[in-house]
Design goal:
There is one protein chain. The chain is mainly beta and about 260 residues long. The chain has a single domain, classed as Immunoglobulin-like (Sandwich). It is built from 3 helices and 12 strands. The N terminus is likely disordered.
Length: about 260
């Protein structure tokens, strides 16, 4: 019996080591605090809790000087602000994107939204169980490409579009005009709420104080000013390789109120 317990303990340690090893050092971290008032998903961002919340920090442009991407070199870099809050039912996120030339060609869900001005949220709610994650790619006009990526499975099940789950609640605001390069725009906003009970992996494991998620928070796409920027940058890697799981950052849920 003692041998069985010892073997089980060693197995648990070995599995934990495997997943811990799949991580680049120095990954950014962000603490998600609890909301104190109702968050209205409208893209306006006038809720007092949003004003009190801290941003994840400036996005990085890891491929800006990459020799073979002249489009990126000539583009004017435009910053993205992201904040997060949570309660017992939802994770709330907003992206506030500077953008002088807003562009979108994809008006249907699960189309190639990443070719438009677009943001990404890649999230693994249970890093200890494996490297699978959900991917939301949302263009500036609010259309969603939803992908479930599981590197431990073989295609096509390993990388599936249109997963059979509820999509997040999404609102968007355009500060300018879409597909008109004759004027100068201010930017655009995506605000969304992810309901925990809509996702099978969270039915029995909703976040609580101290819960860790691994996440990639990115921005890409556009026509005149293509933007490739990240919260958790992949320095020195192939241009546009946003989905390298070892480079994902860390999100910690906290019971501390935002104010």
């Amino acid at each position: 019996m003692k041998k069985v317990i010892l073997l089980l303990s060693l197995s648990i340690i070995f599995i934990s080591f495997l997943h811990a090893a799949e991580e680049e050092p120095g990954r950014p971290e962000y603490t998600i605090k609890k909301r104190t008032e109702k968050i209205v998903i409208d893209g306006v961002l006038d809720d007092p809790d949003w004003a009190a919340a801290e941003s994840v920090g400036d996005f990085k442009f890891p491929w800006y000087n990459y020799e073979k991407r002249e489009v990126v070199q000539k583009a004017e870099l435009e910053q993205t602000e992201v904040k997060m809050l949570w309660d017992d039912e939802f994770l709330y996120i907003y992206y506030k994107c500077e953008d002088k030339h807003i562009w979108a060609d994809h008006y249907n869900s699960n189309s190639q939204t990443y070719k438009d001005d677009c943001v990404e949220f890649c999230w693994n709610p249970n890093p200890g169980a494996g490297n699978a994650w959900n991917i939301f790619e949302i263009n500036c006009i609010g259309n969603l490409l939803n992908i479930y990526n599981d590197p431990d499975k073989k295609a096509p099940r390993g990388n599936r579009r249109n997963r059979t789950i509820m999509v997040p609640h999404i609102a968007q605001v355009i500060r300018g005009t879409v597909n008109n390069d004759e004027d100068i725009d201010e930017g655009w906003i995506i605000e969304m709420a992810i309901r925990f009970e809509d996702y099978p992996e969270l039915l029995k494991k909703k976040p609580q104080n101290g819960t860790l998620w691994r996440a990639g928070i990115n921005r890409c796409g556009g026509m005149t000013n293509w933007q490739d920027s990240m919260w958790a940058p992949e320095w020195g890697k192939t241009v546009g390789s946003f989905w390298l799981y070892p480079f994902f950052g860390k999100l910690y849920f906290s019971d501390e109120s935002v104010k």
